[in-house]
Amino acid sequence: MDDDAIFDRPRREELQLIKAFLGITDPGKRQRVLRLAEQLADDASYEAAGLGAPRHPGPE
């Protein structure tokens, strides 16, 4: 298996995410995307710790 390909896949996804985020010109939509990304990261942390997903408040 190609170790560089395994390393490059996450990097490529990071760059795609950054490019897409920078393409959002509406500040409100950018904040929504940021909050969603933070919630997803929190969910992943809780799940990795075996705690299940946390409950998130509704949209502001």
Write the layout of secondary structure elements.
Blueprint: H1 3-22, H2 27-48
Overview of the molecule:
By secondary structure, the protein is mainly alpha-helical. The protein is 70% helix and 0% strand. The protein starts with a helix and ends in a 12-residue tail after the last helix. The model has no long low-confidence stretch (mean pLDDT 84).
Class by SSE composition: mainly alpha
Helical coverage, percent range: over 70%
**Whole-number mean pLDDT:** 84
SS summary, helix count: 2
User: What's the end-to-end separation, in Å?
Assistant: 46 Å
List keywords for this structure.
60 residues, mainly alpha
What is this entry, summarized?
The protein has 60 residues and is mainly α.
